[in-house]
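Bug report (template v2)

What were you trying to do?
Predict the complex of my protein with zinc ion.

What happened?
Run completed; filing so the output is reviewed.

Input:
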Amino acid sequence: MVKFIASSLTVLLLTIAAVKAQINIAAYPKVNEVPPITSPEVQAWLKEIDLTGAPAIELHKGAPPACPNPPIANECYWTCDGCAADDITACAAPNTWGLTFDDGPSVYTPTLLDFLKTNKLSASFFVIGSNAIQYPATLKREVAEGHHLASHTWSHHALTTLSNEQIVAEMKWTEKAVMEATGLRLKYMRPPYGDINNRVRFVLKKLGYIPVDWTGDAYDTNDWRIASGWTEQQVVTTFTKSLDAYVASDKAKGFYCLEHDVADSTVKVALKLLPLGIQRKINFASVAGCEHDAQPYQAGSTAPMPTLPGVNPTTPGQPTPSKGPTTPGGGSTAGGNGTANGPTVLAPKNGASTMVASGLFTAAAAAAAALILA
Ligand SMILES: [Zn+2]
């Protein structure tokens, strides 16, 4: 018996080692801490970019920081003044729920992936580097099942509180972790807490990243509030009102939600929220699908560029085909029901924003709806 337990334990440890061996955790900084900028790796990354000309905006304080009072001129601070500059804040596809999950991967992510697979839905996962090195197999599964990976920094600190060099460290270590697990070099990112201003944007652009915020307060599902007292039903009721308001609008643009795959409660409520969209015949897409980006990762990826649902395949290096006119920006927030404090939605300027719903995209959504409603 003892021998059996010992051999079982050995098998278990070897299995864990086999998964862990995909990422050499010892080669990475401490998890959940801002990586030091003195390491040889960060010093090498800093040599690759020119941060000269970064806006001289003072660092904010707090976790997350309070809004500066008085406001800082020309900061364009999304969380406080709703200024989004050229961040992506709305899904470019009409009548579409831009499906994004932040803060993973976690032990709860596979449950969500099972649901998405059953319903043929594709999402973007904004992963935290500190979690990515611990669950490389989950990252691989996400890619294999048609999902899109994006960055949510290494340690989930508010970026306006970090120096330019620390932002580089946060982004590049996460990029390295996902590259090691999947061979894909991340291109899109979401700032933790939506905390982004013009200084942060400057650094992100130097690194080739495109920020994706969410479409204002109405599209924060508030799933994270369950940890601090909200009931699951409160989340469902509140978000149902947002969806109904969206359905009653012109739906010319889609929306990006704030959801998380880091806790049991946020995954469980996601499995209740998503059917609400399907019942309302809202399409679903990842950021790549929403923005019709056939190159949803940066050059330098060592794995082949995956073709994601909703994106027409193209030859690498060729322009993304466009089937119709662009959705002009400068209008209202998606659905026209953004709050007074919500972001100004501008036309995405990522060079791949000429999204129209493709036949593939629509067919996949219809199939998903049929599965759920049957
Ligand atoms: Zn987050």
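What did the reviewer find?
The mean pLDDT is 82. The pocket of zinc ion is lined by residues 102-103, 152, 156, 192 (CB under 6 Å).
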